[in-house]
């Protein structure tokens, strides 16, 4: 019988990605890792096909794969059950290329099946000869093939395809985009497409596992599965935690409770709490709690903060940092403001207003200050207070122009001479500095490329504790790519001078690379007056 992707053969409109998809399936029995690399490449080409074909989908700020798949007009064009499978294709491909972690056959099969579902959705929307198909594992070709794995990793592709050829094929599809876009609505009315539900077991063993491996966790060592617990409120007084993550001291840092992809991960919150209660009694330390369905993840440290949405599990170093912070934090009202940094009353009022809101659980804030009233000085002083109060260690300062990055770094150097600083625009070697300054595109590249001395990812989801966005009115509206994910639109309008601006007063804040800092501060110019500080949680 024909393999799963054989239906793509002979369909001229799918030439851009057809060969890559067919080859990814063909090599699976020879090398699951190389199949994962091939699936990622085929997926990238298929995504670019959609952008060329559909005029209703908007090209994002940056055309890398992460930005493309998170662009809202692309993401919400399909059922969330389909979209939720797509990041796994990218992550497993990255794991195969950039780490020495093993990729199992079942890992690669799930990536192939996710690619198949996406291409089925594509065919459902735009194809001339669509029929509803199901991925069948038994159809994967069993024959072994010869592979040059070193070359495949170097090229990040199984097939030889020149950039000029890719662009020519994209141009052909773009020339048909008016008709393809018009056909899409009619096809969706007339055709049927059913996303596949994923079981809780696959959720736990695949979607979550790849996140943990990419963050440097080692199964059987600092990650243990199905950990037996005693003291549960049931007749047997026993239970099993899906995952427990351990620190270098051998004590638990966090538990992970997994649910089906179709379920809200918050459903597992009470179960996670019971597991945390047991582990606290058994080990003397209360772990943090992650609940996830593989697509969405929530973190709850009930000793220090409310439950909140995060991008995924955290690295060991980040969890150890947060665990240590439980005992290090001091009331911010007890931390004096350094008069050598800020000595004007309105600057101090702004700092105290932000600190007060942080102390009550808010994690985002906006400062609106007139030109010349010291936004950077105030941000420096706030960084100093939060650092001495035990709230932040690593800080990211984002601006939309190189000149602003350079100026901010020089100002911080003057105000905070004892903190290590790094301008990513000019110094690529000191990325581990306490305060990192960057433009958005440079930070986007560093998210994936920056490594620690032992080769692990440096800018992990919880690496930065404070993100400062300079000139927020200009630099974050409609410009930030989804790798630095926009969190939300606050519906709270600002008082004072900001209302005179004649601009939108809704505030958008960042989740860097799907990252969530403990605190996010936006700065913007105000036309008149001194300063206005508001929480925007």
Automatic annotation (TrEMBL):
InterPro entries registered for this protein in UniProt: Helicase/UvrB_N (IPR006935), Helicase_ATP-bd (IPR014001), Helicase_Restrict-Modif_Enz (IPR050742), P-loop_NTPase (IPR027417), Restrct_endonuc_type1_HsdR_N (IPR007409)
Coiled coil: 152-186
The UniProt record lists the keyword Iron: no
Keywords of the record: ATP-binding, Coiled coil, Helicase, Hydrolase, Nucleotide-binding
Origin superkingdom: Bacteria
Keyword Nucleotide-binding in annotation: yes
Gene Ontology MF annotations: ATP binding; DNA binding; helicase activity; type I site-specific deoxyribonuclease activity
Helicase ATP-binding domain location: 356-487
A Pfam family of this chain: HSDR_N
Cellular component GO terms, alphabetical: cytosol
GO biological-process terms attached to the record: DNA restriction-modification system
TM region positions: none
Name assigned to this protein: DEAD/DEAH box helicase family protein
Naturally occurring in which organism (per UniProt): Cohnella ginsengisoli
Native organism taxonomy: Bacteria, Bacillati, Bacillota, Bacilli, Bacillales
């Amino acid at each position: 019988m024909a393999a799963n992707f054989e239906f793509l053969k002979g369909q001229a409109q799918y030439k851009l990605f057809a060969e890559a998809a067919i080859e990814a399936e063909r090599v699976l029995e020879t090398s699951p890792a190389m199949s994962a690399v091939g699936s990622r490449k085929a997926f990238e080409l298929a995504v670019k096909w959609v952008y060329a074909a559909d005029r209703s989908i908007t090209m994002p700020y940056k055309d890398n794969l992460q930005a493309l798949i998170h662009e809202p007009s692309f993401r919400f064009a399909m059922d969330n059950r389909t979209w939720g499978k797509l990041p796994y294709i990218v992550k497993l491909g990255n794991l195969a290329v950039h780490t020495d972690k093993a990729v199992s056959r079942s890992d690669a099969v799930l990536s192939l099946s996710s690619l198949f579902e996406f291409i089925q959705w594509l065919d459902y929307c735009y194809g001339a000869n669509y029929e509803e198909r199901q991925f069948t594992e038994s159809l994967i070709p069993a024959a072994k093939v010869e592979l040059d794995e070193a070359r495949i990793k170097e090229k990040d592709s199984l097939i030889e395809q020149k950039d000029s050829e890719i662009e020519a094929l994209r141009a052909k599809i773009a020339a048909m985009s008016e008709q393809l876009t018009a056909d899409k609505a009619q096809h969706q009315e007339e055709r049927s497409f059913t996303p596949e539900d994923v079981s809780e077991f696959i959720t736990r063993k695949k979607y979550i596992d790849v996140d943990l491996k990419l963050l440097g966790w080692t199964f059987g060592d600092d990650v243990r599965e199905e950990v037996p617990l005693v003291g549960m409120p049931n007749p047997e007084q026993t239970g099993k935690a899906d995952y427990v993550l351990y620190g270098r001291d051998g004590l638990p840092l966090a538990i992970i409770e997994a649910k089906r992809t179709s379920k809200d991960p918050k459903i597992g919150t009470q179960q996670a709490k019971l597991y945390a209660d047991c582990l606290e009694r058994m080990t003397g330390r209360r772990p943090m709690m992650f609940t996830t369905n593989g697509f969405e993840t929530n973190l709850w440290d009930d000793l220090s903060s409310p439950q909140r949405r995060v991008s995924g599990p955290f690295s060991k170093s980040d969890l150890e940092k947060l665990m240590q912070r439980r005992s290090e934090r001091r009331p911010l009202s007890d931390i004096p403001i350094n008069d050598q940094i800020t000595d004007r009353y309105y600057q101090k009022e702004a700092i105290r207003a932000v600190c007060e809101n942080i102390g009550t659980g808010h994690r985002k804030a906006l400062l609106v200050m007139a030109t010349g009233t010291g936004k950077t000085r105030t941000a420096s002083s706030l960084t100093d207070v939060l650092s001495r109060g035990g709230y932040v260690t690593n800080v990211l300062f984002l601006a939309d122009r190189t000149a602003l990055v350079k100026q901010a770094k020089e100002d911080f150097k003057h105000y905070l001479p004892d903190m290590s600083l790094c301008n990513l625009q000019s110094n690529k070697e000191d990325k581990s500095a306490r305060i990192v300054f960057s433009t958005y595109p440079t930070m986007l590249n560093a998210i994936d490329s920056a490594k620690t001395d032992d080769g692990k990812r440096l800018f992990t989801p919880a690496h930065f504790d404070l993100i400062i966005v300079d000139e927020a009115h200009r630099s974050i509206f409609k410009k930030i790519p989804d790798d630095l994910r926009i969190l939300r639109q606050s519906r709270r309008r600002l008082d004072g001078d900001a209302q005179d601006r004649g601009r939108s007063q809704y505030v958008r804040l960042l989740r860097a690379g799907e990252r969530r800092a403990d605190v996010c501060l936006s700065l913007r110019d105000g036309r008149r007056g001194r300063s206005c500080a508001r929480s925007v949680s």
